[in-house]
């Protein structure tokens, strides 16, 4: 009984909100994300590596929870969130994207670092005829052109649009999870 009480207290403490995020309805506990939506809290965490994804979450008030495991690099958060709270919408299936060729000089103009938040940047590099993006704390992924300014990832459902001002590349916009996050070029 004593061990069960200590375990319950430790879990409750881990879920206690420690930090806010840039999103108004999302906070962080000890490695737990805490959504405050639809009049309830939903505690969850996700992960992915090597072409696999995982998600675990629960709503403390309702006692409903789920574990979602996938042998794909595709995002599964929407499935877990929707399973625990049906008011969370399921994501639309990604649309088919067609790769086009872009001149090497245009690709070279996109190489640099783009800051999306004070602690999160996307670095764009080039290797031959290919561009790569690497976000803070994440692995490097190739991106594929669907126009001269619009690129997409195959590893996850995300897109990047490069922004120009007077012909000079000044930023990018990361399109992912229904959000369009602008980033200023810093290098």
What is this entry, summarized?
Helices cover 16% and strands 48% of the residues.
Give a description of the structure.
This protein is an alpha+beta fold. The protein folds into two domains: 2-84, no CATH class; 104-185, Lipocalin (Beta Barrel). The chain is built from three helices and 14 strands. It has an eight-stranded antiparallel beta barrel. Strands 1-2-3-4-5-6 form a six-stranded antiparallel sheet, covered by helices on one side. It is elongated, with a radius of gyration of 19 Å.
Poorly predicted segments: none
Q: How would you spell out the order of helices and strands? A: HEEEEEEHHEEEEEEEE
Strand content: over 45%
User: How many distinct folded domains?
Assistant: 2
- For the CA atoms, what is the radius of gyration? 19 Å
Task: Tell me the strand order in the biggest sheet.
Answer: 7-8-9-10-11-12-13-14
- Summarize model confidence as the mean pLDDT: 90
Largest sheet: 8 strands, antiparallel, barrel
Query: In terms of structural class, how would the helical and strand content be classed?
Result: alpha+beta
Shape: elongated
């Amino acid at each position: 009984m004593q061990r069960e009480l200590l375990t319950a207290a430790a879990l409750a403490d881990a879920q206690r909100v420690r930090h806010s995020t840039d999103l108004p309805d999302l906070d962080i506990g000890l490695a737990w994300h805490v959504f405050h939506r639809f009049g309830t809290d939903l505690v969850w965490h996700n992960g992915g590596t090597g072409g696999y994804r995982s998600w675990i979450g629960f709503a403390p008030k309702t006692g409903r929870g789920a574990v979602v495991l996938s042998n794909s690099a595709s995002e599964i958060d929407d499935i877990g969130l929707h399973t625990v709270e049906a008011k969370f919408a399921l994501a639309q299936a990604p649309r088919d994207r067609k790769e086009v060729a872009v001149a090497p000089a245009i690709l070279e103009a996109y190489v640099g670092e783009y800051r999306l938040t004070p602690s999160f940047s996307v670095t764009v590099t080039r290797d031959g005829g290919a561009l790569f993006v690497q976000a803070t704390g994440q692995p490097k992924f190739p991106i594929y052109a669907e126009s001269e300014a619009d690129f997409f990832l195959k590893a996850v459902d995300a897109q990047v649009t490069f922004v120009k001002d007077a012909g000079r590349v000044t930023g990018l916009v990361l399109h992912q999870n229904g959000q369009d996050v602008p980033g200023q070029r810093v290098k």
